[in-house]
Known about the structure:
Elements: E1 5-11, H1 17-33, E2 35-41, H2 49-52, E3 65-68, H3 70-73, H4 77-86, E4 92-95, E5 104-107, H5 109-123, E6 129-133, H6 139-154, E7 164-166, H7 174-183, E8 189-192, H8 195-207, E9 217-219, E10 236-238, H9 241-256, E11 264-266, E12 269-271, H10 280-285, E13 288-292, E14 296-299, H11 301-312, H12 319-340, H13 350-357, H14 370-387, H15 391-415, H16 419-438, H17 447-454, E15 463-473, E16 485-493, E17 496-499, E18 506-508, E19 525-533, E20 536-543, H18 553-565
Parallel strand pairs: 1-2, 1-3, 2-19, 3-4, 4-5, 5-11, 6-7, 6-8, 8-9
Antiparallel strand pairs: 10-12, 13-14, 15-16, 15-20, 16-17, 16-18, 19-20
Helix pairs in contact: 1-9, 5-6, 7-8, 11-12, 12-13, 14-15, 16-18
Amino acid sequence: MSIRKTVALMIPDISGEFFGDIVKGARMAAEEKKINLMVIPGGVISDDYEDNVLYYLAGRKSVDAVSCTTASIVHTDKVYDFFAKEIGGKPSLAVADKYKDYPSIYYDNTTGIREIMDYLINKKKCTHIIMFAGPKVSSDAEERLAEYRRFMKEKRLKVEDRMIARGDHTSLCVEEAEKLIKANPGAEAIVCSNDAQAQAVYRVLKNNDRAIGKDVLVTGFDDFTESAYMDPPLASVKASGLKLGYEACTLAGRMGDGEQASDKVLECHFIKRESVGYDPGRAVASFEKRQNIRAGTTFDIPSLAVSMSDYIFTGDVHDYQSECQKKLIEDFFNRFLSTYLGDVVKRRSGDQLEYAIGIFDRGGTQYIDCNRLFRILDSVYRIFCMKHKSEASRMDLVRIIASVKSRVADNLERRSGDIRKIVVSRHESLMRFSKRLLSIDPAAEDRYAKLMEAVSLIGVMNASIFMFEKPVKQTKGAKFVFPKKLYLKAYRDRTGVHQIDETHQLTPADDIMDYRYLEGGRQHTFYTMSLHYSGRQMGVLLIDLDDEYFSSYSLINNVINLTVSHF
Length: 567
C-alpha cells in the first residue's frame, strides 16, 4: 500500500470566507488524491505571535510539502525566507501570490481587470474611472492596479494621481475611500481591488446619497458570497477560493512526491450585477427571439437554459464537479422552459417533468446557490405571466415552481437541516460545549479525556491533545523554540475517547502527523490549535472540525485555552 503524503497548509485563519474556501478546496483535494492535510491557521507573523508558533509544525519530518498563502501571513520576503529555513527546506508552494524562488499558484488578475474595464468603457461608455487599489505588499493588488493603468492608457484615457488611492483589502478602509471619492466628484465608475474595499466604497457613497449602479458604477474582485446580496448586488471578478485550495493541495502533494513544479495561473471572470447597471431581468428577457401571434413572445430555450444555469451556479466548485452539476441543471431548465415558455402552452408528460425535477433529489442543490435558484424561478413566473393570460396555465406553473422549491428544501433538510435551524443549533451546541469544558474538574485524572468527550458537542469525531512538558514562556518579537518532545494526553477517534497512561505519552514532535492516533479523520484533514494563555505556550491540539464551525474557530480555541490553563 502506498504511503499517504502529508501537506501542511499555512494560512492566517479559517474564519473568513476566502481562507475558509481555500481550506475547503484543499480538503476536497486531500480526500480525492489521498493526501493527509494539516491546516495551520497561525495568524499574521509577528502580529499574532501567540499563534505563529504553529507554523513550526510545518517543519516536522512527517510533513512532505508546504503550501503557504504568503502575502497574507508575511509582510516581507525576509520573514518568509526565515520560515522557509525553519521548515527544513521542504518543497514549498506560494498560494494566491507570486513569490520569488518558489513555485506559485495565483489568479489571472490581468484578465479579470481587463474584463471589468472593457465592460465599463465599451458597454457603459465610462471615461472617468478611478481605482481603489490594494496594499503594496500584495502582488495581486499590484497586478490589478498595473492592468488598470495599462487599459486606461490603451484607451487613451487620462490617469492622474488623485484617481488612485490605496486600501488594506478590508472593509475598514472607509477613510481612504472617502478621500478618493471626494477628490473625484465626477467619477463615473470605481474599480476596487477586492470586494471588502468595495464595501467601504458602498458605505461612503450611501452616506453621500449617491445611487450605486446609477450615479456611480462600482466593481470588486474575488466575488465573496455576500457580494451577490449587497444592496445593490456587487459586480465582481469570480476568483474561486475553493478551486485555488483544490489546485494548491493537489500541486503540493505532487511536489511532496518529488515532482518539480512551475507557476500555475487560474482563470477568473467578471460577473456583472446591478452595481454596474446590469439588469438580470432584462438580460433574461433579451433571449426573446421572435413574435408569435397566438402565444406572444417566445424564447431561445437552450440559450435561456444555459443562462439560468450559469446564474444560479455558485462557480465555487472545481471543474470535475461543476460540469456534471451544470448539465443536470441545464437539462432541468430545458425541460422546464420548453413546457412553459414555448410557442404554445402545452401539457407535457408528468413523468417527464418529474424526471427533470428529480434532479434536485440527486444532490443538485449541493453546489448551487439555492437563493438564486428561487429568485430565477420567480422571475420565470413573472415573465410567463406577462406573456400568457390563462389562469389555469399560471396555476400549473405555480404548482411546478412550488414543487421544485419543495424538493430543494427537502434535499437541504436531508443533508443538514433548515439553515435557520443550523444557526440556532450551532449556537446552542457552542454554549453546551463551553459549559461542559468549564465544568471539568482541573484536578481530575481524566480531565483530558473529559475534554476529548466535550468536543463531540461541536461535531468533532477525531482530535488529539499534545501538551508540552511544562508551559513555555513566550515573549513577543523573540524567537520561539518549539519543544522536540510532546506528551499525548488523550485522543478521540471513531471508537471513542482514549486517555494515554503517563508511560506512553511521550511523543516526538516530528511525529505529530504520523496518524498512529489520528486514523479515520474526516477526509484525513486536521486543524492545529495553539494552546496558550497569559504569555505561556502549553501545547497543541489537532482537531477534525466541520465546515459550519469555521466562523467559530477562535471562540472554540479560546474556550479550550481557558480550560487547559487550569489543568
